[in-house]
Amino acid sequence: MAEKNILAYFQSIEDAEGARAKLQALRAADISIDRIGRFPGEGVDRIMNPITGDFPGIGYLTQDANFADKSAAILAAADVTASGMSDGGQDAVTGRDVLLTVVIDEQNADQALRIIREAGGLV
Questions:
Q1: What percent of the chain is predicted at pLDDT more than 70?
Q2: SS3 of 3, please?
């Protein structure tokens, strides 16, 4: 059987979880829920002293970002949030920042789309 991939955007994790529960009843092959952030990485998860120089860049300290690319880290350091004196509007990604990814059998795709829309998702 052929599978269909669906990407849907939600305003909250709770809305996406509600859709997930209903999609599991359709026997979706895979479902994941992720929050989309402005910068890559999971954020700073350890206490450190910036005076020691034991950090990869200012974006790591002030933006909770983990950059694999040095150029991206330099560009992020030019962002208004890098000063630490501004939150940049509490992260620029607002609204639909929760991504629901579904892999489902093609014959159930229309019903899955209906469930997602009823839960407040944007496809």
A1: 64
A2: strand
Task: Specify whether 25 is located in the same domain as 43.
Answer: no
Residue 49 φ/ψ, nearest 5 degrees: -110, 110
Residue with tokens 């990485």: 41
In the numeric block, the tokens 């809305």 are attached to 15
CATH number, domain of 123, equals 3.30.70.240
Residue 113 burial by CB count (10 A; 0-12/13-18/19+): exposed, middle or buried?
A: middle
Asked whether the CA dihedral 57, 62, 67, 69 is positive or negative, the reply is negative
pLDDT tens-digit profile of 92-106?
555 788 999 999 999
pLDDT in tens, 19-50: 999 999 998 999 999 988 766 665 555 666 66
Are both 26 and 65 inside the same structural domain? no
Range of the domain at 8: 1-36+94-123
The answer, yes or no, to whether residue 54 has pLDDT greater than 80, is no
